[in-house]
Amino acid sequence: MTTIKNLFDELPPDRRRRLTDVAVEVSLPRATRLFEEGRRADRFWIIRSGQVYLDQHVPGRRAAIVETLGRDELLGWSWLFPPYLWHLGAETVGPVEAVEFDARAVRDLCESDPVLGRAVYRYVAKTVADRLHGTRTRLLDLYGPQGSGLDP
């Protein structure tokens, strides 16, 4: 397993400062609903402590939890891609400490600073690719004839 790096670890120090200028430290109580599938994605978070469930709407049933995110993980990537709508919902499992970013401010920084923009896009793309890989592995475990072949 690779070491988890957060967005700040991926940036050169001078670009890191530009990003932290638009960041806000937040404390979120247990069971805080952060966003809903299909609604406007106007912010994102780097989780410092605690956990957040990602869930998907299932008609006629409770939302299905599809992933749990924790320390140093990116919460939200829909803010970076038009039409800027959440693909999932999210709720805190317990108390969460996080760094919150205004999506428009970060998109503007990415447009005005190609080095920062490239680093942010790479980080988000890697995050999405890693989660897609994890999802495929879970699907193989559930539905594949012999599972994924990976030990839990």
Automatic annotation (TrEMBL):
InterPro entries: cNMP-bd_dom (IPR000595), cNMP-bd_dom_sf (IPR018490), RmlC-like_jellyroll (IPR014710). Pfam families: cNMP_binding (PF00027). SUPFAM superfamilies: cAMP-binding domain-like. Residues 7-76 form the Cyclic nucleotide-binding domain. SMART domains: cNMP. This is Cyclic nucleotide-binding domain-containing protein. It comes from Streptomyces lydicus.
